[in-house]
Amino acid sequence: MSLINSNTKWVLFLSAKGDPEPRHIMDLAFGVLCLERAGVKMADIAIYIDGADRVSIENFVKHGTSSPFSLQTSDEFFIDQTKNTHDNLVLFITGHGSLDGIDAAQQITPYKLLNSIKSSPNLKRAVVYLGQCYAGIFNYIGAGSKKDPNGIPDPEVIFIGATNLHESISSSTQEVFVSGSLPWFANLFLLFAFKWFSNPLDVDGDGRFTVIDSYKYAGALVNARNKHGKTATLALSADLQAKWIAAKEAHNAAPNQQTELAQEAAFIQYSAHLSFLHVHQECWILNAVPAQNLER
After folding, report:
1. Beta strands in 67-209 (DSSP E)
2. For the chain, which terminal residue's Cβ has fewer other Cβ atoms within 10 angstroms, N or C?
């Protein structure tokens, strides 16, 4: 079954405790761009982004499309799901996450998100791409379809996480938008997942472009980018360590506020680079069997 050629709702989702970061909005602007290029109609795309400055958010999204669109908040997503009329849901989530769930005014826990999807009337299947940090807390939950006492099945849900119980990796990139070529600090997994939808690759060679291909494609390219980034970071870390040691020695030789601040700044920069070397990202998929048959 093809998602693009059937009754599918495509959702771009960014919740936040306050105002969202522009880089996360740009993740979704790129998503709009790729989905329209894939043949998805704007009428089938719903955009939920939190934040007080609605004009600014709208202007960011306009980088990805010249089509008119409606902008809603994350709370409205859960309300809209209670009135669902679609057979399929494809949900892309960016923003921040923690062990408490996805950042929002009230944290979005795995149970809250899964229950919203499972209880959506008329919904048969859903695919959820989780780009936020610690996406693995959404793993190992009851995503498979189950029948109620009357024998009626609930939706089949596929969860695909950018990372497990680690931070999610973002990196500087530049893409051509409707408004021209723009740089931003992109969520790498979502970047490549969106690219797959606009220009799919049959990774497993079965002659079809399926959701499982998108998972393998995005995961492999993120790992390659991650390896390259860590190699470059390790090379630079030696120079940063030397600068920190020099700043520390200068402070020990002539302790004052200026040398103390210089030492602290050098250490923070060095430490930030080292921390990247210890971030492990490996994507995962829950409920993989349906993903092998569900086509783009």
Report:
1. 71-72, 88-94, 97-98, 101-102, 125-130, 156-161, 170-177, 180-187
2. N
Q: pTM of this prediction?
A: 0.90
Say whether pLDDT at 272 is over 90: no
264 CA to centre of own chain: 33
Least confident of 30-44, 114-128, 203-217, 225-239: 225-239
Residue 233 CB contacts under 8 Å (≥ 6 apart), including other chains: 273, 276, 277
Interatomic CA distance for residues 228 and 126, integer angstroms: 33
Q: 13: closest CA among 108, 110, 124, 123?
A: 108
Q: Residue 19, Cβ neighbours under 10 Å: how many?
A: 13
Q: Compute CA 140 distance to the chain's CA centroid, rounded to the nearest angstrom.
A: 19
Long-range contacts of 104-113 (CB under 8 A, 24+ apart): 104/15, 104/16, 104/17, 104/50, 104/74, 105/15, 105/17, 105/50, 105/75, 108/15, 108/74, 110/137, 110/138, 110/141, 111/141, 112/78, 113/138
pLDDT of residue 280: 76
User: Tens of pLDDT along 143-186?
Assistant: 999 988 888 899 999 999 999 999 998 888 999 999 999 999 99
